[in-house]
Write a structure and sequence with these properties.
A hairpin with a 2-residue loop joins β4 and β5. The chain has a six-stranded mixed sheet, sandwiched between helices. It is built from eight helices and twelve strands. The protein has one domain: P-loop containing nucleotide triphosphate hydrolases (Rossmann fold). The C terminus is likely disordered. It is α/β, with parallel strands linked by helices. α5 packs parallel to α6. The chain is 33% helix and 28% strand.
Length: 257
């Protein structure tokens, strides 16, 4: 079995001095899709920001290893250049910056060299077709006046263009109607490959009707309390999180009996 692409080991994180993650651990290997599920306030988005290096999130204990390297001290841009990508739950609008310029600048920053206009257009056009995005979309300002579905399509378009090794998708299904959800899910499925790991953070099982995860983790009060296969998401949909809250302690500390 290959070495894990991502190892989160006994991670404790505070925000403004308040403990949020309390011993969270998980591993993601290349080629795998992991779904991270939990109620509001459980620490799912905190993990995503921490993986990307947001300075507000302070690691007080534990490790984040990416391809065997401790990345806790790396700034966000260095993590992006190493192949980590975060799709935001609430993408920010950038008035005055066109999507074409934004994507080309981001691609140059990640690759470290310039890309020709022709190569860039070919790359983007093929991915836009998959996501059902019209050519005029590229001349719009980033997320400025976008619907929820348009914002999430742009997040997946960024993922497709930048081709990261680890994609962290923070509630990509949030605010999507059923048609937009299917388009976004198809886009994510099209980006599954043996060299890429995907961590899909979500509240609900519905997106997992279209994206079948290899592993599902339940996060309660800042730690993973249960892990399993796709059937775990179905169980969550049926019974909710109440049954898991009753044994909300880190998975590795629980004992039989």
């Amino acid at each position: 079995m290959s070495e894990p692409l991502l190892v989160v080991d006994n991670l404790h994180v505070t925000v403004d001095g308040k403990p949020i993650l309390k011993g969270l651990s998980l591993e993601v290997r290349a080629g795998e899709v992991h779904a991270l599920m939990g109620p509001n306030g459980s620490g799912k988005s905190t993990l995503s920001f921490c993986l990307m290096g947001h300075p507000k999130y302070k690691i007080t204990q534990g490790k984040i290893l990416y391809k065997g390297q401790d990345i806790a001290t790396l700034p966000p841009d260095a993590r992006a250049k190493h192949g980590i990508f975060l799709a935001f739950q609430y993408p920010t609008a950038i008035p005055g910056v066109t999507i074409a310029n934004f994507l080309r600048t981001a691609l140059k920053a990640v690759r470290g060299d310039e890309i020709s206009v022709r190569e860039f257009r070919q790359l983007v056009k093929s991915q836009m077709k998959t996501l059902g995005i019209q050519d005029a979309f590229m001349n719009r300002y980033v997320n400025d006046g976008f619907s929820g579905g348009e914002k999430k399509r742009l997040e997946i378009l960024q993922l497709a263009v930048l081709q990261p090794e680890l994609a962290v998708l923070d509630e990509t299904d949030s605010g999507l109607d059923i048609d937009a959800l299917k388009v976004v899910a198809d886009g994510i499925n099209g980006l599954r490959q043996p060299s890429r790991g995907i961590l899909l953070i979500t509240h609900y099982q519905r997106i997992l009707n279209y994206i079948k995860p290899d592993h599902v983790h339940v996060v309660i009060d800042g730690s993973v309390v249960e892990s399993g296969g796709p059937e775990l998401a179905v169980e969550l949909e049926r019974q909710g999180y109440k049954g898991f809250i009753t044994h909300a302690e880190p998975l590795e500390t629980r004992t039989e009996g």
